[in-house]
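User: quick one, fold this
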Amino acid sequence: MKEWLSDNGFVDIPTNDLDISTLKMALLQLLKRLDIHAKLRDSIRAIAYGLDVVAAKKVEKVVMEAVKRVMEGYKDALGMLAEVLVKTVKEMAEQAKERMDRAKMEEG
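Assistant:
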């Protein structure tokens, strides 16, 4: 398919793999031909637009997966921070109670 598109002048892809952008470009090249019926032109435009939508969804998926990984990392870090904070507060509360108990014993 890649060779046919290249041989027929729709796209110049000597070494690159086919991707959505390249296929869209080939469709748009087809629109330049004068022998294409108007209804077919509309169909080609619709397919090209559909390829844009597919590409956008693909990008969105990749971005959302990256955001999810980053957020999981933050979640883990915040969880550890919360555990350390709770432990520290408990230790401080115990120390304060011990001081108060000692102070009461020294008074009494």
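User: anything notable?
Assistant: The chain has a mean pLDDT of 84.
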